[in-house]
Hints:
About 55% of the residues lie in helices and about 15% in strands. With about 250 residues, it is of the alpha+beta class.
Amino acid sequence: MHILETNDLVVFNNITCQIHKNGDLNEMCRSFLDQIRLLMDFDAAVFYFSDFKNLPRLSHAVCCGYSGTLAAEYLESGQDQDYSRGLMMGGKKMVYRESDVFSDADRTDTPFYRRFFQSQGYHHSVHILPAENGRVLAKVSFFRRRGAPDFVYDDVFLLDMFQEHLALRIERSYEELEHRHEKLSVAECEEKFRLTARETTILGLLMQGLPNDVICSQLTITNNTLKKHILNIYKKMSIRNRTQLFKLVREYAD
C-alpha cells in the first residue's frame, strides 16, 4: 500500500480542496490534471466528461500534454471504437490499469490502439471512472510512452482516493445545471407568458433582488403602480407570491 509522505499529504489535501472549491468545472479538471503530476508521473492526460443529459456519452475534454485534436476526434468517433466502452456502460466506479483488463495482444492489434495510442507513442494507461447512482460521469485517462514502465498499483491506489471526490463534485455540477435548466430566463418568461415590455423590465429588476422602493425610484413610478404590475405578472404566470416567482425564474438579470 502506498504511504503518503508529509509533502504528499499537503499536495493531496490541496488537490481535494480544489476539486470541491473550484466553481468552474473545466478549471477544476485542468487544475486536477496539473496538480496530480506532483504525485504521479505521466506523459499526458485527458479529462473527459459528458453532457449531464446524455450520460455516459462523453462530450467535453480538458487536456494536459494530450493533443486537443486527438481528444476532439475521440469525442466525435473514437469513443464508439474504444475497447473499454463496456466499462463506461457498466455504470460502476473504478480505477484500472489497462494492462489489468486487456492483454497487449488484444488491444495493440486494434484500429483504436493504433490511432489513440501508437500514433502518439503511448502504450501504458490508467483510468478513473467516477460514478454515482449507476452512472459513469467522466473518464480521466493518464498515459505513458512505450519504453517507460507501466503504472503501478500505488498509482491505482492514489487515484482511487480521488475517485469519490471527483464523482461528488461532477454530480453536484450536473445537479446545478439541471436545476438551472428547469428555470426560465426573464426573456423566456416574456415570450411564454406574453409579458409587456414594462412587466419584463420589472421582472428583471425583481430577479436582481431589488426592493420595491428602489425599483420605483429607477422606473419613476409609484408603489401602487408597481404593485399592479407585479400582480399582473403573477396572474399571467399563474403564481401568487415572490417565493413562487424565484422558484420559476432564474435569479439573475438577462
